[in-house]
């Protein structure tokens, strides 16, 4: 069963781009945005990462951290970060545990062909580690700004 609003952040670790792991529960204590995206260096995913990167100073001013997650390797993430001068940190879900817990590994269809893939989704946790808001089937234009507004609402 996928995480729902009010649920606690799961005890999951992700591989970081700098080596080592990132424990999601290490983000308890401040607002935390976790977003899942399909693939590095594609048009929608690039735009989303650029939008979150552009707003990183505003998220930081509100005490919030942001982490983007896909199945791409740490090496591919690092190339993606360097190519577009991204400031949003990225992580890899090597064992699909996060994608399963958040219910974002779903059956998709393109040109009549069915396949499994990541449903572009974002999750905002409060400082106690409870899910405050979830966005599923995200459309990229304006999304990062919507998330920022929800963080503002959360910290009021």
What are the SSEs and their pairings?
Layout: E1 13-16, E2 21-23, E3 32-36, H1 43-61, E4 65-70, H2 74-84, E5 90-92, H3 97-102, E6 105-110, E7 113-118, E8 121-125, E9 131-135, H4 143-155
Parallel strand pairs: 3-4, 4-5
Antiparallel strand pairs: 1-2, 1-5, 3-8, 6-7, 8-9
Helix pairs in contact: 1-4
Question: In a few lines, what is going on in this structure?
Answer:
This protein has 156 residues and is of the alpha+beta class.
Question: How would you explain this protein's 3D organization?
Answer:
- The protein has one domain (13-155): Glutaredoxin.
- It is globular, with a radius of gyration of 15 Å.
- 31% of the residues lie in helices and 28% in strands.
- The longest helix is centred in the middle third of the chain and has 19 residues, at 43-61.
- By secondary structure, it is of the alpha+beta class.
- The model has no long low-confidence stretch (mean pLDDT 95).
- It is built from four helices and nine strands.
- A seven-stranded mixed beta sheet has the order 2-1-5-4-3-8-9, with helices on one face. Strands 6-7 form a two-stranded antiparallel sheet.
């Amino acid at each position: 069963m996928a995480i729902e609003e009010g649920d606690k952040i799961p005890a999951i670790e992700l591989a970081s781009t700098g080596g080592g792991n990132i424990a999601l529960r290490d983000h308890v204590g401040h607002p935390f945005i976790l977003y899942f995206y399909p693939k590095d260096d594609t048009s929608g995913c690039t735009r989303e990462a650029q939008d979150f990167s552009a707003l990183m100073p505003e998220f930081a001013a509100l005490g919030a951290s942001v982490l983007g997650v896909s199945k791409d390797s740490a090496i591919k993430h690092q190339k993606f970060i360097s190519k577009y001068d991204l400031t949003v940190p990225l992580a890899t879900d090597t064992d699909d545990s996060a994608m399963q817990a958040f219910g974002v590994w779903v059956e998709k269809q393109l040109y009549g062909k069915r396949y499994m893939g990541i449903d572009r989704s974002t999750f905002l946790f409060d400082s106690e580690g409870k899910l405050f808001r979830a966005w599923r089937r995200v459309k990229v234009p304006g999304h990062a700004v919507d998330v920022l507004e929800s963080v503002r609402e959360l910290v009021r």
